[in-house]
Design goal:
The complex is a heterodimer of chains A (269) and B (327).
Chain A: E1 5-15, E2 25-36, E3 41-45, H1 52-59, E4 67-72, E5 75-76, H2 82-88, E6 92-95, H3 99-102, H4 109-121, H5 125-138, H6 155-167, E7 173-177, H7 185-202, E8 205-210, H8 213-219, E9 222-227, E10 230-236, H9 237-242, H10 247-255
Parallel strand pairs in A: 3-8, 3-9, 6-7, 7-8
Antiparallel strand pairs in A: 1-2, 1-4, 4-5, 9-10
Helix pairs in contact in A: 4-5, 6-7
Chain B: E1 5-15, E2 21-32, E3 37-41, H1 48-55, E4 63-72, E5 75-76, H2 82-88, E6 93-96, H3 100-103, H4 110-121, H5 126-140, H6 145-149, H7 158-170, E7 176-180, H8 188-205, E8 208-213, H9 216-219, E9 225-230, E10 233-239, H10 240-245, H11 250-257, H12 303-306, E11 311-315, E12 318-321
Parallel strand pairs in B: 3-8, 3-9, 6-7, 7-8
Antiparallel strand pairs in B: 1-2, 1-4, 4-5, 9-10, 10-12, 11-12
The chains are: A alpha/beta (269), B alpha/beta (327).
């Protein structure tokens, strides 16, 4: 089966010099290659500055790579003109870490959910109401929340709303960029279960970006470890946990807070 | 040994915009021995940040302490004069509140900000002030101390900023530091470094530490005791190893079961749903009777609806507020 997403030698440079004519560049992505199979979850693990968010933005066609290819369902979206990207973007949606920053604080839940429907699908008003209700049901938010604003919702409710918004355009893939990191433990568990349920009921593919190895191990089929713009190691969850080879992987594993009930780690630091 | 801090029956509430009183803490008791590390574990709405703020009377204008005593080095801070409080804050008690990016002045070099704390509580001449500042920074940074001293906050990473806050907190050799989620925005390895730094400094300087967090895993191997807060009440308190390995309060047990399964090479299953705690934390503004965890509790009994449980001993220094253990 073809992978849903396949990336080859992706490079992203940003200008970094102070003066206008400076040629100094920041290499955010250094020839990254990876693939994600349909209806699976790839966890992308790395510290801040490793390039994970830059990679996410490229996948979502919100950043133009400097060079390399991004094959989404076999089509190189990195080479597509803007006009054609418009039909690709709805298929890859994003959920961010801080729902307070990614949800418009002045809009109601209803307005937040119907905006993408209006912009992309131009649904008639009646259909929009029904669709919004269905989206709320999908993420287990009560329908009477439609008139509330984000400031009146809890952290978990806000994140469910962000996920509902991501589902509005019926995407094939959702990129979750540290989407659980700011939540309380019990809420993290609820949202993680929701994501697993949605994956099996809607056939979604996830790119799950995190610096938390235990969360990655819980939700992913495959793990890729990033360090300074490169993928330094990748493989199944089992392989990465039982025999990590790269130093960055081992450092990250060692830094994951442990728990007294855990069996002695099989990892050699 | 005389505790450095004793909190007796603390009740704190906030006035909402309609003037209605919403309880935030109810009957909180705790004590802290000199040099001890106490982890306060609580999720959003548990009252943990309110607890941190109330200890030094730093509640916002709509917050009030309704009842209780906070004894620090023998004196009741809730009845202390403004002059005494000013001496204590930053001097005898160091405070690190959430949002490190907001805690530092953006337009002052970090060295000046550390000097500022020293200058507020001691009278050193300029040369001594500068030496002491560099010494303090050297205790939290391993190299490039001079360069960091001359840097502005935006030129430092999150971990470096947190180290500056720690330097400020310990500047006047306090006997207590209260840190509210000091590692929340940091990477795992930086988190580990910062916790290690906290532990080394507090042990070597004999400083007691209250570390507030929502992440139980951080406290393992770090805190001496854990206090679990739920809905503004102390659910459980005891030695860390005991509370984490065999939690007694139904909330603590349910919370720890929510965590992802421990990392291990021999995973037979992944992508398995996690345990969750049914329901949501209570809305404390609504008047209620009985145990606040009862609606979500797997072990609830009839008595739990009518009364609030008081604290009962379940082991060595290990107390739980739950009717399951009432005598």
């Amino acid at each position: 089966m073809h992978p849903l997403l396949k990336v080859e030698d992706l490079v992203k440079q940003y200008p970094a010099g102070r003066s206008a004519g400076s040629k100094v560049k920041l290499l955010a992505l250094d020839a990254v290659s990876l693939s994600i199979a349909q209806q699976t979850t790839l966890a992308l693990v790395g510290e801040s500055g490793s390039g994970k968010s830059t990679l996410a933005l490229c996948f979502a066609c919100l950043e133009q790579p400097t060079s390399g290819s991004i094959f989404f369902e076999g089509v190189d979206v990195a080479a597509l003109p803007e006009s054609e990207l418009r039909s690709v973007r709805p298929q890859v949606q994003l959920v961010f870490q801080d729902p307070a920053a990614s949800l418009n604080p002045r809009w109601t839940t209803f307005e937040i959910l119907s905006e993408p429907l209006f912009l992309q699908r131009s649904l008639a008003k009646q259909n929009r109401n029904n669709t919004v209700s269905q989206l709320l049901d999908r993420v287990a938010l009560p329908r009477n929340l439609t008139s509330r604003r984000p400031g009146e919702l809890s952290g978990g409710q806000k994140q469910r709303l962000a996920i509902a918004r991501a589902l509005a355009l019926e995407p094939k893939m959702i990129i979750l960029d540290e989407a659980l990191s700011a939540l309380d433990c019990s809420v993290q568990a609820q949202i993680l279960n929701l994501l697993l349920d949605l994956q099996s009921s809607l056939g979604l593919t996830y790119l799950f970006i995190t610096h938390d190895f235990s969360m990655a191990a819980q939700i992913a089929d495959q793990i890729a470890v990033m360090d300074r713009g490169r993928i330094v190691e990748s493989g199944t969850v089992h392989k990465i946990l039982s025999s990590p080879t790269h130093e960055s992987t081992r450092t990250l594993l060692a830094a994951t807070p442990r728990f007294p009930t855990s069996p002695p780690s099989q990892v050699n630091p | 040994m005389t505790p450095i801090l004793e909190v007796h029956s603390l009740h704190v509430a906030y006035f909402d915009r309609q003037g209605k009183l919403c309880p935030a803490l109810a009957g909180v008791n705790l004590d802290l021995a000199p040099g001890e590390i106490l982890g306060v574990l609580g999720e959003s709405g548990s009252g943990k940040s309110t607890l941190a703020a109330s200890l030094l009377r730093l509640l916002p204008s709509n917050g009030i302490v309704q009842k209780g005593r906070v004894l620090f080095e023998g004196a009741n801070l809730l009845e202390a004069s403004p002059q005494y409080l000013r001496k204590i804050r930053g001097g005898r008690v160091g405070l690190i509140l959430q949002e490190p990016s907001l805690a530092l002045h953006p337009a002052l070099q970090v060295g000046q900000q550390v000097s500022g704390v020293l200058a507020a509580h001691e009278s050193f001449d300029r040369r001594t002030l500068r030496e002491k500042t560099l010494q303090l920074l050297a205790s939290v940074f391993t190299h490039e101390v001079e360069r960091i001293s001359r840097s502005y906050p935006h030129q430092l990473s999150g971990g470096q900023r947190q180290r500056v806050l720690i330097a400020q907190a310990i500047a006047c050799r306090p006997s207590l530091v209260v840190a509210d989620e000091p590692t929340a925005s940091l990477d795992p390895s930086t988190q580990l470094e910062i916790l290690e730094l906290f532990r080394t400094l507090t042990r070597s300087l004999g400083i007691a530490l209250i570390l507030i967090t929502h992440n139980p895993a951080l406290l393992f191997g770090f805190a001496d005791r854990i206090l679990v807060l739920y809905a503004g009440r102390v659910a459980e308190i005891g030695p860390t190893a005991n509370v984490l390995a065999s939690p007694q309060h139904p909330y603590t047990r349910a919370l720890l079961r929510c965590l992802p399964t421990p990392l291990s090479g021999e995973r037979s299953e992944h992508k398995v749903r996690l345990h969750v705690i049914a329901g949501d934390p209570p809305d404390l503004s609504l008047h209620a009777r009985g145990c606040r965890f009862e609606p979500r509790c797997a072990d609830r009994m009839e008595i739990c609806k009518g009364d609030e449980p008081s604290s009962a001993a379940v082991g060595e220094q290990h107390n739980v507020a739950c009717f399951k253990f009432a005598s």
